[in-house]
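S.,

Sequence below, as promised.
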Amino acid sequence: MKVELLVSKWCPTCPQAERIWGEAAEKVPMDFQVVDVSDREGRELISRLRIKTVPAVVIDGALKSVGVQPLGEVIKLLGEMAA
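The prediction came back faster than expected:
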C-alpha cells in the first residue's frame, strides 16, 4: 500500500499530521512518503486529484482523507484499505 501525505511549509497542522502518520507507518506495513505541495510531485498530485487543502492523504493514488486525524482513526483507515 502506497501512502502519500501531502503537506506544505505554511500549514500549521501539517507537522502534527506528519508525526501521526509517521507513527502509523511504524505500526502498519506501507510505503509511506511525505510530499510537499511546492515540489513537482506534490503539484502534480494536487492538480490531478483536485486537492484544495493540506494535510491530505493519498492512498494508492486516491484521495482518502484531509485534515489531521487521531492515530486510532489513521490505523482504522489503513486497516480498511488493507482488507
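Helices lie at 14-27, 40-49, 71-82.

Coffee later?
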